[in-house]
C-alpha cells in the first residue's frame, strides 16, 4: 500500500524461452492456472507466442510463451526467431527454462547467447527436477550458472508444482509498478480461433504420433452460433504431402473421426457449450515457406 492507501500493483511481460519440450507450456499452465498453452510430449508444439495472464491482487504477470528457438533453417524458423527477438525487446524479464533431465546442451547455449543480448533481467528455471536425484539437479544448477546469463536460478517441477511459487514470486518482483494490462478475469488474449485451432492441433498430434511430423497446422476459419447451445466450428488441418493426408484420414476415415471426436470434446470444454466441428484435411505443399499462409495462420 502507498501512503495515501492506494494499492501499488506491478505488471509486465515475462518472455519464456527454452528448447522444445522443456516444459514451457506446462509451466505456463501452472503459473496461470488454466489451460492456455497446449501441452504435448512432441517437441515444438508451440509455434505461436501464446500469452498467459496471471492476475493476483498485487501483480499481473503476462507470460509470452515463445516458440522453440532454433537456428534459422527455413522461413518459418527465421520468422520465429524474429518474433523471439522482438518479444525480448518488449519484455520486462526473460525466463530461460532448462531440462534437468537432459542437462545443458548446445541448444540451451544458443538461447542463452540470444538472451545475453536481451535488455532485461534473465532468470533460469531448471525444470523436471522430479526426474532427478539431488546430486543430478545440483550438477545442472551449476551448469546453468556457468551459462553466465542469469542472476537467479530456480529448480522447479512445472508438472508437480515444486518451486513454482518461489519462481513466480521472484518474477513478480521484477515487474515494474503499473496498472494491469488486462481485465483480471482474462487468462489469455489470444484470438478465439487461434486458441481453438491449438486445441484441435493438440488432438491431431496426440493421435498421429510419429507418423505425421510437425508439418501439421490447423486453421479455424469459422466460429458461428448456429442455434441455442450449439456452436459450429470449421477447421482445416493443413499437411504437406498426400501420404500425410492419408495417415490423418486413416482407413475408412477412422483416424479423422477419432481426432474430430476428441477435438470436439476439447472445444466443448473450452466453450462450455455443444460444438459441431467440421474438420477437413488439405494438402498444402511446403506451407512452411508460404508467407501468405503463415500470415493467415497468425504466425508472425
Ligand atoms: N516429469 C516432468 N515432466 C514434465 C515437467 N514439465 C513438463 N513435463 C513434460 O514434458 C513434456 C513437454 O512439456 P511441454 O510443456 O509441452 O513442453 P514445451 O516446452 O511447451 O514444448 P514445445 O511447445 O514443444 O516447445 C510433456 O510431456 C510434459 O508433461 C516436469 O516438471 N516434470
From TrEMBL:
Era-type G domain sequence ranges: 10-177
Subcellular localization: Cytoplasm; Cell membrane
Cellular component terms per the entry's GO annotation: cytosol; plasma membrane
Region (G2): 44-48
Region (G4): 127-130
Gene Ontology annotations of biological process type: ribosomal small subunit assembly
Pfam family, one: MMR_HSR1
Entry GO MF terms: GTP binding; GTPase activity; ribosomal small subunit binding; small ribosomal subunit rRNA binding
Primary location recorded for the protein, binned into one broad class: cytoplasm
The keyword Cell wall biogenesis/degradation is assigned to this record: no
Protein topology in the membrane: Peripheral membrane protein
Domain of life: Bacteria
Region described as G5: spans on this chain: 156-158
Region of interest (G3), residue spans: 65-68
KH type-2 domain residues: 200-285
HAMAP family: GTPase_Era
Designated name of the protein: GTPase Era
Organism the protein comes from: Conexibacter woesei (strain DSM 14684 / CCUG 47730 / CIP 108061 / JCM 11494 / NBRC 100937 / ID131577)
